Every structure is written in structure tokens, then in C-alpha cells.
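When time allows, look over one protein, given below as sequence and C-alpha cells. The question is which stretches look regular and which look disordered:
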Amino acid sequence: MKGFKKKFIFLTLGIISPLSLQTFKVNANSFGAEIFCSMRDGGNDHESSWEAAYTYIKKQKGGIFKVSPKQAASQITESVIRNRETFNYCVEYLDKLHPNRKLIRDLQKEKKRKEKNQKRLEKELESNQDFSDEIIERYSY
């Protein structure tokens, strides 16, 4: 009978513990969204609001793995959408959390292309420096 009680207690703790941690996680994400939305609604810019909310979400997330900015943005968006009545003023700020990824990729490709062209031009300029040592007479035939 004692073995059964111990198993029952461990089984109960095994079921209740993850549920309580999940509730804490949802509350932390919701509070991260509240921080972001309150700061934006108060007139703060996107960067400072985002940094405050992201810092809070990272701090609340325990464990080995860190929360990426993409995950935190998704958590804030999810909290705002789930609690639309509470955060009805915040929906307009969500677009800044998810920037246009295609535009960012295109800008990075363009930057790499320009750097590659710059290096090519520098190589050509270096190869043209060889002629500066010789004196070429214009009218010598």
C-alpha cells in the first residue's frame, strides 16, 4: 500500500508540475505583451518598447535555451491576438515586430554585391599601378 501511495504522489506531481509551469509561461508572455503595448501606447518608440519586453521575456524564461527575438515577437503577437479585448489598442503596433524579411534579404544581397564590386575595382586599380613606374614618351616612336 505504501508503494502505491508514493507512486500516486509522484504521478500527481508529474501531472501538476508541467501544467503550473505552462501557466507561468503564459503569464510571462502576456506580461511581455503588456509591457510592449503599454510603452508603445505611452508614446515610446518601437526600439525601446521592444527591448523592454524582450528583456523581460528572456529573464522569465528559465532553462538552458534562450528565447530568440523571433520567438519573443511571436509570443507577444499571440498574446495580443488571444486577448484582443485587453490589447485592442496594440494591434496597430504589431507590424514592427515582424519586419519585411524579403526586403531585408534583398538589401543584404545588394550590400554583398556592392562589396564584391568594390573589391573587384580595387584589384583593377592595383593592377593599373604597375604602369606608373615606367615613363612613356608620348611622341617616341
User: Anything to note?
Assistant: Residues 2-99 form one domain. The chain has a mean pLDDT of 77.
